[in-house]
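User: For a reading group we're discussing how well predicted structures match intuition. Take Pentachlorophenol 4-monooxygenase. Before you show the prediction, I'll give you the sequence so everyone sees exactly what went in.
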Amino acid sequence: MSFNSEHPSASCCIVGGGPAGLMLGYLLARQGIEVTVLEKHADFLRDFRGDTIHPSTLEIIWRLGFLDEFLQLPHQRAEKLYGEINGKETTLADFSHLPTQCKFIAFMPQWDFLNFISSKAAMLPNFTLLHNAEVKGLIEENGVVKGVNAVINGESRRIDSTLVIGCDGRNSIVREQAGMEIRRFGAPRDVLWLKIHKLADDPQWSMGHRGPKKNFIMIDRGDYWQCGYSIAKDSLDALREKGLQPFVELIAEVSPFELSRLQNDITDWDQVKLLKIRIDRLKEWAKPGILCIGDAAHAMSPIGGVGVNLAIQDAVATANIISAPLLNGTLQLKHLQRVQRRRTFPTWATQSLQIMISKAGQKKRTKPPGRMELWLRQRKFIPFLFGRLIGIGFYREIPKGL
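Assistant: Thanks. Here is the predicted 3D structure of Pentachlorophenol 4-monooxygenase, as structure tokens, for the group to look at:
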């Protein structure tokens, strides 16, 4: 697509250059569809984004023919997810029996994943990725969305398109401008993300809940630990008022790290990043000329780290359903609604499971262990079940033709 024209156009304008947007852009362009992806930032470098590449996503990359090249990028692998229950290590999810090419989660900075997918898409002549491109509003004619108004590198531009797809996350400007109704399910907790430098004699932990309490999360990121500390909803200001030192002492109580080590690594509140947990989904994902997928359609809890991979499966399903009608000029609202019907059950089921786990985690601990803990311990098939649900999801989406 030439961007020298007064009013550039594309068959599909994707708002948001995240995992769903870039994967969808690649799959559509691969089918010969003119695609423009608008990413409001200058690059993909953001800390503490969803960095888990699940077996379902690795399977898609394998089918696209890029897996060996992709796994050359620096990453860590987790064949199982662990947690501590009453001081005893427990396997929460086991991926070893999945019917996939890769039976592990790959931990990789999201910017590496996005750069990889965008580099593959850039090889296709009908794919355009524009950075510093912020959407300001939708273009509507007779109740049908016909494109977007955006500011690109400081210049106001109009982009005409047959279809606008919102992949711009939980604070989506697309769904806001389209007036889409959101169902909110709330969440009792937020998460604070921290970095703790790794030492040579640290144990070889994989992803999971570590420490004497279950509300401390650790992810092996190579040269550092990405740590998450669960707090009550909207309680960060109260923690700040008490001061940084008491906060670091709280972390020491629930983590496997010594206080002195934490004091060396956490020296400023700027090193503490807040993730506001939200669980919500749109009542209707589509209107004439517009569709939302991924977090723009359904914000997920970080439980299980499934948000990115659910969004990518949305992208695959979307490409499978709309590619043909986009190409032959017969795209209608019914095709967009078909995407929602296809992805409603896995979205609902995943969110319901997250809500159930979240509520179970808020119940007061009992001695002897509560029913949930005993259930996890005594049923040996549970890690394999959770491995399936986390690793693949409730539906398995495969790009057509592969």
